[in-house]
Sequence to fold (695 residues):
Amino acid sequence: MELRGAELSRRAAEFRDADGTDHELAVRRAGARGLARLRSPAERPRLLAALSDDDPEVVAWAAYGLGDICASARDATVSSLVARGVGLHERNDADRALRPLSAIARAIGRCASDTSEKTLLDWAAAGGRNAEDAVFALGDIAQQRGSLREETCVALLELAAGSASSKPWALALQPLGRVKHLPPSVAERARQVAVARLADGGVDRIHAVRTLGRTDETAAPALLGELVAVGRATPSERAEAARALGRLGASGQRALRDALTSLLPDTHDPIKATALVGPEFGGLVAALDAITDLDGARAILDRYAKLEVAVEAPPSVVRRTSMLRCAASRVIAERDFDYPLLAHCDRTVSKQAAGSGFYGARAMVMAIGLPGTQLVSKRLRAWQRYAEGSDVLARAAAIRLIGEHPELDDPEVPLALALESKSAGVVAAAAEVIAKHPDRIGGRVEPERHRGKTPKRATRRSGAPQVGKALIGLLEAFEPSGDIEAIMHVSDAAGALALDGAREPLGRLCRSAHPLVRQHAERALAAILGGDQKSVCTASDTGLPLPDELSRLVGAPVKLVFESDVGELILELDPALAPVAVTRIVELAKGGFYDGMLVHRVVPGFVTQLGSPTSDGFGGAPGRASLACETAPVVFRAGSVGMALAGRDTGSSQFFVTHADHPHLDGQYAWLGRSSGPWATLVEGDRILRAHMVP
Fold:
């Protein structure tokens, strides 16, 4: 328990060298785990020592930790990892939660040294248990660099295509689906191989869809076939196909229009309309979101914008119909934000409440602030209603438009009012705008007046007192249990404006136990002090506060049921790797925290996320400090449950459920368990009715 406390508080001094040689296996494992989660380059020698341990779990933690801190010694770290991996090739660790070979391969990928790519390609080509991990690790390199060497791409395509002596292997396409653009020399071959793998089926089929999206416009017909293949392609594959078509220029836009025509739902029939409350809906939403070219699509979009539902339709159908109506209306409206169908697109509110509702208000703000327009006259007045309104999601979206519209030459009042909001999301939006555009606050040139006359010269207005006062007040009032993401933006804004009055509260935050709070406070102080003066922030001696849950950790897997109007949603949480985070979620569920809560984020084919008390993606459990990350070298498969973050050590009450395999999440978020039930059928705005634990 002492080592667990040192890990959660991030106190490196409490880890002893003797922990690594202790005869008690539990001590060595806890020591390696804690050192890995510290993410401190200073711990490299101790992690290298742990890498040579004879216990597979200790080796896995050591490799995982080394992969996070190898920036200053990439080649040397990769050499050590490769040497240890060679000695483990014949070990059977298939049934372990933490597999050392997997951790070593992924660490080599995250280090991305000059030799990483070739080493991992050799491991992938050799086959065996380590081949899958090597492919995922090559995907990590592709994610970091945005590209892979041409010879690597060719070799992966050969593995995916198969040969006379080896079966086709669709998983080999996974790294190719994570590059920004495939080399032109391999794009045609990639398209051919990916299309061939679509015919094979299986969980790795999605990597073929993602690869097609990285080729060229000739892939559009194959992707269209996936998008309209309801029942054959999985919902995640269809959503990926829609997003891929959105990247393929004119051919992709034509395919999306054809898909929308084919998929148009019949919402007049109450029975047929219930099909909207199903896993196929996500592909339809993704297709509408990917439409950018109105030419030729106006007719079909008009049909979506005019969808109606029967009077007796359940709320779940009304919400989904509203989503489709608002998405289509927003595209059709173009520069006419007064477009009647847009104003009344949201059927979750009365027809008299024009421009409001969970879906309608945000669609209206997007139309008002369309790039290329100017917020003046009638458009300006419409923007002001949302920028100072009560809908937190629409308000935050409107505030962010300030940064995109320089014609708003005096935004101090709406920004100051936003900073005084009780919504962390609105506060963060305002602070982020200020930090990015400090010249917009207090920088307007005004003429001086003398005896009622306007002189020829002008002077700059001195500062923005309302904004400055609000920022300083937020810094002074911040408590450890407050929203860390919001205070980071507030600190950045204070630094960007060089608020001298913020020096004292920033100095206090500079001594915070939370590293992200210190980092942003230090940067802000440096900007205020100017010149060569720099403030060096020092963490408090106590480290991060230990969570209350530490004294009552859940000791066995727990099953939670979230009741919703789309069915029962199940979480099977396992405390083995993240006991504190699992305990937090379980206690909040038992205490009614999630009852009545809106689902605030759904990305079709990717994740469903909830747990924001204000339903805007910000905030956590009131009165409870954020949790230290309990990340681990495990794979996020379809249906995995993870702790949502706004940065390292910021988890609280928000969690996500994956819709498909997403290897880029591996090791970056705490893995909490598995899910079952219709999580992928949820949409933003759906509500959790009640959560309870199954004995």
About this structure: The radius of gyration is 27 Å. Residues 548-694 form a domain with the Cyclophilin fold (CATH 2.40.100.10). The CA atoms of residues 374 and 649 lie 40 Å apart.
